[in-house]
Design goal:
Pfam families: AhpC-TSA. It is a single chain. The chain has about 500 residues and is α/β, with parallel strands linked by helices. Among the domains are: about 15-90, no CATH class; about 275-330, no CATH class; about 335-485, Glutaredoxin (3-Layer(aba) Sandwich). Helices cover about 60% and strands about 10% of the residues. It is built from 22 helices and eight strands. It has helices spanning about 1-35, 40-50, 60-70, 75-90, 95-105, 110-125, 135-150, 155-160, 165-180, 185-205, 215-220, 220-235, 240-250, 255-270, 275-285, 295-305, 310-330, 370-375, 375-385, 405-415, 440, 470-485; strands spanning about 335, 340-345, 350, 360-365, 395-400, 425, 450-455, 460-465. A hairpin with a 4-residue loop joins strand 7 and strand 8. The longest helix is centred in the N-terminal third of the chain and has 35 residues, at about 1-35. The chain is globular and about 80 Å long. The model is unreliable at about 1-20 (pLDDT under 50).
Length: about 500
């Protein structure tokens, strides 16, 4: 009997893998039309898919077609296929996901969320979706954070304990630990943060040939969880313990040195290793983290016995950083006409690129769900404010790829709540020939994506990625803008 059950389980798992592969193959098959097809080609593909659904035998086939229709921008047809699939599979993943989105995430209190979670487990128990446990971990992490914010640490810990995917659970543990830490509950926060740190270290220390995408994702959180946990040790003046963790981390993941720099500095100071601490601050300052300047100057004075020579030293660090940025932006240089656009801003007014001729324009493509985009906004705000009196410079924040139907309200709420003085444009106007939004016309493959356009309407620089370093962003934007003001030399 056990052998029969095992065979059935293995057969099911293999069938699931094969179904997912077939789904991916089908999406890849139509990718050229999705990305570069004409309206006629996209319409034709839509008709083919709508005809096919009559023969579908599994929910996965429906999901694949729904994803393709979503990528084609066929929202009405997508909704129609979703309705058919939900009716055919009332206890399937589509109805489950709709419940999570519409009931769980829209609950106004953590008690309502807890009830929704219990209802979720009754109708769509995780044991029926063994390949999708991450979906349940997202819910558990959100629920745990809700209880942590309510000051109910026992409930938060309980729901964290129900998470199943070890590679991802640090993403639930870390925010809860930080919430408890900010509330002064160090005793409860410490083991939570240590769990997140240990999980990340486990994946980080795997041999390279065993590091899959999950392991790489998990290891990325090491610096954050390490810093949070070691900061507790530093606050408790356990500097040697802190240094042990940090120096072990730097051997295993030297690329995360920047993320650990401040807590390393504090630990070194606590053990009297001031010269090493000074060297760390010097590196941070030379990378544009000017917030450390007071500590740097104080250490300079202690180590040298006077402030003589400090100003020259400081200036040389800034000059080195500026030169580094200038060398870096050469890699971003390009020269081609920018696609023209006419889009609506938050007030419903039309803004076109043509109307801004004679100005250097900074386009920042972003979305509310994009954490790297949002992470760079304090720096972009500072950069914009530094050019507030320059009438020849215009910042535009191109909101694109939003996922919710009420995205306009969400965007306005986000900008207002965070008091960002940005000129935001909605990139939601599809080209009648290609069906593309402006991000696609600019060649954007991922966000954040920034374009620096000169006074003649030519793209001079294109950059991706982000940093939370406000001072670095200010300097980088200054170099990009000032370079774009100058005539193109080829």
């Amino acid at each position: 009997m056990k052998t029969t059950i095992l065979i059935i389980a293995l057969t099911f798992a293999l069938a699931n893998v094969m179904a997912q592969k077939a789904s991916g193959d089908k999406f890849q098959k139509y990718l050229p039309i999705i990305e570069k097809g004409s309206i006629a080609q996209k319409d034709s593909l839509t008709n083919v898919l709508l005809t096919e659904i009559k023969s579908y035998k599994t929910e996965q086939e429906f999901r694949t077609t729904i994803n393709i229709l979503r990528s084609l921008g066929k929202e009405q047809q997508q909704a129609s296929v979703e309705a058919i699939a939900k009716k055919k599979y009332p206890k399937g993943s589509l109805t489950r996901d709709a419940f999570i989105t519409n009931v769980f995430y829209n609950a106004s209190t953590v008690q309502e969320k807890e009830k929704a979670y219990n209802d979720l487990n009754k109708k769509w128990p995780s044991k029926n979706f063994s390949e999708e446990l991450l979906t349940y971990d997202y819910v558990l992490a959100n629920l745990a954070q809700g209880f942590a914010n309510d000051g109910n640490a026992p409930k938060a810990i309980h729901y964290l304990g129900e998470m199943k995917e070890k590679f991802w659970r640090g993403n639930g543990y870390l925010p809860v630990g930080q919430i408890l830490l900010s509330a002064g509950d160090t005793v409860t926060a410490a083991p939570i943060l240590k769990t997140a740190m240990d999980d990340s270290y486990y994946y980080l220390s795997l041999p390279e040939d065993q590091k899959d995408n999950k392991a790489r994702f998990a290891s990325m959180g090491y610096a954050s969880s390490m810093s949070a946990y070691v900061n507790i040790l530093v606050a408790q003046k356990k500097y040697n313990d802190a240094l042990g963790y940090i120096e072990n981390a730097l051997k295993a993941a030297p690329e995360q040195a920047d993320g650990l720099a401040m807590v390393y500095y504090k630990s070194l100071m606590g053990t009297g290793r001031k010269l090493e601490a000074y060297n760390i601050l010097t590196k941070l300052y030379a990378k544009g983290q000017f917030a450390v300047e007071n500590d740097l100057k104080k250490l300079y004075l202690e180590l040298n016995g006077s402030a003589q020579g400090y100003e020259n030293f400081n200036a040389s660090l800034k000059e080195t950083l500026t030169q580094t940025i200038r060398d870096h932006i050469k890699e971003m240089a390009t020269f081609k006409p920018a696609p023209n656009f006419e889009l609506l801003n938050l007030k419903g007014e039309k803004v076109s690129l043509a109307s801004l001729k004679g100005k250097v324009v900074i386009l920042d493509f972003w979305a509310t769900w994009c954490q790297p985009c949002v992470r760079s906004f304090p720096g972009m705000k500072a950069a914009q404010e530094s050019y507030a009196n320059d009438k020849d410079v215009q910042f535009l924040f191109m909101n694109t790829w939003e996922r919710d139907k009420n995205y306009k309200e969400n965007v306005l709420s986000f900008i207002t709540k965070n008091n960002y003085p940005f000129e935001v444009l909605y990139d939601d106007q599809k080209d009648p020939q290609t069906g593309e939004v402006m991000a696609a016309k600019f060649g954007v493959k991922g966000i954040p994506a920034k374009f620096i356009i000169d006074k003649e309407g030519n793209i001079r620089y294109f950059l991706t990625g982000s940093t939370p370093n406000v001072d670095y962003i200010k300097l980088e934007m200054k170099e990009l803008i000032e370079a774009a003001k100058k005539p193109f030399k080829g």
